[in-house]
Amino acid sequence: MSIIIEETHSSAPIGVFDSGVGGLTVAREIMRNLPDERIVYFGDTARVPYGSKSQETVIRYSKQIVRFLQTQHVKAIVIACNTASALALDAIEGELDIPILGVLRPGAKVAAETTKNKRVGVIATESTIRSGMYGRYIKAHDPEITVYGKACPLFVPLVEEGWLKDPVTEEVARRYLKELLEKNIDSLILGCTHYPLIRSLMRKIVGDKVQLVNPAYETALELGRLLTREGLANDGGTDCAGEKYQFFVSDAAEKFAEFANSILPYDVKKTRKINIEEYGA
């Protein structure tokens, strides 16, 4: 079934979705780099995490969210979740008549372009690493690059607990990264949207010789290019009805808003809870 938006124009919002709060790092980069754009964000806080779920389940969840974003008349969609980008993007984009962008390809492209010794590390959830999609995209740019993946499941709960600079988080990071550093990588992809929040900690551990690639930042830049290319960029000259940034979740709205206000350059005054299961199988 094809999903069709009745009207698409430059002042329409961008739909951004994630399994929970991690995708707010992508929303933050969009706010910073595309300040004229409106955003409708959905965090699937009732069903987080996606990283340990099957591809079939992630695709089903993602399609429900896309249907919800359709009701908000978005002009483009960003899958601000590495797991959903890896497992569901291909299944979704064929059903859409608007542009859709995941976070894997922009990050993979930059890593492939910046590595000098052709040894790239990827840290991500178990599902993203198991999918091998980062390696596939990187090798599409340069088949000679060797990609080393490492699942880091403890980072998400540590970040959501707010332990961004805690000694426990640093010790966990050192253990995870030791294996990759022994591979002599010179580029490291932060392959989960939570990870940019501990970027300074990563820098402390890997040193200055390793390029840290933040897919959230690269995705915002790629989104800007995509909107310009498609004639959908908002130049700020059009008056937009309604709120500039809207936030929806499937559960725990207060906790979400508290986290959002701790990392966004914007005061989140209202977060709406919806029943995402109402939007199809």
In brief:
Helices cover 43% and strands 16% of the residues.
Describe the structure.
43% of the residues lie in helices and 16% in strands. With 281 residues, the chain is α/β, with parallel strands linked by helices. The chain starts with 13 loop residues before the first strand and ends in an 8-residue tail after the last strand. Mean pLDDT is 93; it is low at 1-7.
Distance between the termini: 13 Å
What would you call the shape? Answer: globular
Strand percentage:
15-25%
- The low-pLDDT segments are 1-7
Strand order of the largest sheet: 4-3-1-2-9-10
Helix content, binned percent? 40-55%
Look at the structure and give the mean pLDDT. 93
- How many β-strands, per DSSP? 10
How many DSSP helices? Answer: 11
Task: Set down the secondary structure blueprint.
Layout: E1 14-18, H1 24-33, E2 39-43, H2 55-71, E3 76-79, H3 82-93, E4 100-102, H4 104-114, E5 119-124, H5 126-131, H6 133-141, E6 146-151, H7 155-160, H8 167-181, E7 187-191, H9 199-206, E8 211-213, H10 215-229, E9 245-249, H11 253-263, E10 272-273
Parallel strand pairs: 1-2, 1-3, 2-9, 3-4, 5-6, 5-7, 7-8, 9-10
Helix pairs in contact: 1-10, 2-3, 4-6, 4-10, 8-9
Essential attributes:
10 strands, 4-stranded parallel β-sheet, disordered N terminus
